[in-house]
Specification:
Elements (H helix, E strand, L loop, with lengths): L3 H20 L4 E4 L5 E2 L13 E5 L2 E2 L4 E4 L6 E6 L8 E10 L8 E7 L5 E2 L3 E2 L4 E8 L11 E8 L16 E3 L10 E8 L2 E7 L9 E6 L9 E7 L6 E13 L14 H28 L1 H9 L4 H49 L18 H39 L5 E2 L2 E2 H24 L20 H30 L3
Helix pairs in contact: 2-3, 4-5, 4-6, 5-6
Length: 502
């Protein structure tokens, strides 16, 4: 049983570690999607996981990757396709280990090694690896009642994993934590930063990810350009080993600790170059001022070729409004043309209606003059043209409003003084701009207030008298019946004559 003194010492050490972590500079984290996977829609159409490859008993779905199912003597593997290019990293693994029995086997492994190990005896992968292995051991091989257990092991390719002792004699560090059959997914975070390896763990008893430290080791040197991987294995007992998420972040030291790039200049050199630039700039300004005094005509000519931002904006606005004014005039002309055509059409239709009404209901003969009436598609074309013109007028109103707002803001920025901007009189341009706006507004108001033409109506079709009288109809009907009866009698005689020859 721990004494009060030991508890105080442990509390002090824990508080010191928390204060050290709080005062230490936090590295920059960047999510590396090529070395991560998570649901939903994890699997593509060809049953592959992007940037990953799996083998053995591993099976990927939309939400998770099952490294091994709960069947005896199964092994599953999963590796990144590309090597890891960054030296400092953080990997968060969210997984479930579930089984029916009170005891499970064998366990799950996280790898960072120089090769993609094939199927083997160490939690589903090969032995004598070069790199790091973090093992979530479910089965108690040494009967010490210390499982489930989490341990990390560093190997240079010369060591063989000791199954009899569950690797306890070879571990960098570990902790006794139960990770089987939890109500929420279990979380583990492996951080390698500045040759320090830290393992964090969340038991899965709550939904929030409140990590606790499992182990920490300093002076850990891992090989560069390795592969991330996962593996799992089952033996006489079996568990489902499901990985829901594998999230990788690269860690970058803060800017104050970043090495200076090649070509970096010191503060003294920077000050020297700044002073030299200031001296050269003053000398250049003096020479330009002297040149202006000696050659005023050339200076004015050179400066007339340029214009500042305000003058350029005013010129562009003036040209845009001139184009709008021309467009409005063209629309006005087309509208007048359409209205004239409608008036001519209406007058023609009125003349046709009055001429048709004086006919006294006489049927039209074949030798009469054909009546020219307006077609339905012509009426539809006229209505569509009116709609397009109305829409164009609305767009022009909006555009003119925007132009007026921009011109007003530029005018306010230019100030009240009658200054010259690149050879252009700003006040004169502003007055011309206002005059053009007023003319555009007047044209638009006149267009909007123009009375719409009367709706078109198709001419009434005169009633036609019946061409066939009832007497004629009955005569034709009797003749038709006689012809049909005669044909039937003739057909019957032909068939009777044909039967005599058989």
């Amino acid at each position: 049983m721990a004494t009060p003194t030991m508890k105080c010492v442990a509390s002090f050490l824990l508080l010191s570690l928390v204060i050290f972590d709080a005062t230490a500079e936090i590295p920059s984290r960047r999510f590396e999607y090529k070395y991560s996977f998570k649901g939903p829609h994890m699997v593509q159409k060809d049953n592959s996981v992007p940037f990953w490859e799996y083998a053995g008993s591993a099976l990927a779905s939309d939400e998770q990757v099952r490294i091994t199912p709960s069947l005896r003597s199964k092994r599953g593997l999963m590796w990144t396709r590309n090597t890891v290019p960054f030296d400092n990293w953080e990997v968060e693994i969210i997984f479930r280990v579930s089984g029916r029995g009170r005891v499970g086997a064998d366990g799950l492994a996280f790898w960072y090694r120089t090769d993609k190990g094939p199927s083997g005896p160490v939690y589903g992968s090969t032995d004598r690896w070069n790199g790091l292995g973090v093992f979530f051991d479910s089965f108690d091989n040494d009967n010490q009642r210390n499982n489930p257990y989490i341990l990390s092991m560093l190997n240079d390719g010369s060591k063989s994993y000791d199954h009899n002792s569950d690797g306890l004699s070879q571990q960098l560090g570990g902790c006794l934590r139960d990770f089987r059959n939890k109500p929420y997914p279990v979380r583990a975070k492996v951080e390698y930063y500045k040759n320090s390896l830290t393992l964090w763990f969340h038991s899965g008893m709550t939904e929030n990810a409140a990590y606790e430290m499992c182990m920490r080791a300093d002076n850990v040197v891992l090989p560069k350009n390795g592969y991330f991987g996962l593996s799992a294995a089952t033996g006489g007992l079996a568990d489902d080993h499901d990985v829901l998420k594998f999230l990788t972040h690269s860690l970058t030291p803060p800017a104050s600790e970043m090495p200076k790039p090649d070509g970096h200049i010191s503060e003294a050199e920077r000050k020297k170059f700044t002073d030299e630039y200031d001296q050269y700039y003053e000398k250049l300004e003096k020479q330009k001022e002297e040149f202006r005094r000696q050659h005023p005509d050339k200076v004015r000519k050179d400066f007339d070729e340029f214009e500042d931002t305000g003058a350029r904006d005013l010129r562009l606005i003036y040209e845009g409004q001139h184009g709008i004014h021309k467009t409005v005039k063209e629309l006005h002309r087309k509208l007048d043309e359409i209205i004239g055509r409608q008036e001519r059409t209406l007058s023609h239709m009125s003349a046709l209606s009055s001429g048709g009404g004086g006919g006294g209901g006489q049927p039209a003969t074949g030798g009469g003059v054909p009546i020219d009436t307006i077609k339905r598609h012509e009426v539809d074309n006229v209505l569509n043209t009116q709609r397009e013109i109305s829409n164009s007028v609305r767009e022009i109103r909006t555009l003119v409003g925007d132009v007026q707002q921009k011109a007003t803001s530029i005018h306010l920025n230019q100030g009240q003084a009658g200054q010259k901007a690149g050879g252009l009189d700003v006040n004169l341009i502003t007055h011309e701009l206002k005059d053009n706006l007023q003319s555009v507004k007047k044209d638009l108001a006149r267009l909007a207030n123009k009375p719409e033409p009367a709706p078109l109506r198709c001419p009434e079709i005169p009633e036609q008298s019946a061409c066939v009288s009832p007497v004629h109809f009955y005569i034709l009907l009797i003749l038709q019946v006689i012809v049909v009866m005669g044909y039937v009698s003739y057909k019957h005689r032909q068939e009777a004559n044909a039967k005599k020859f058989f």
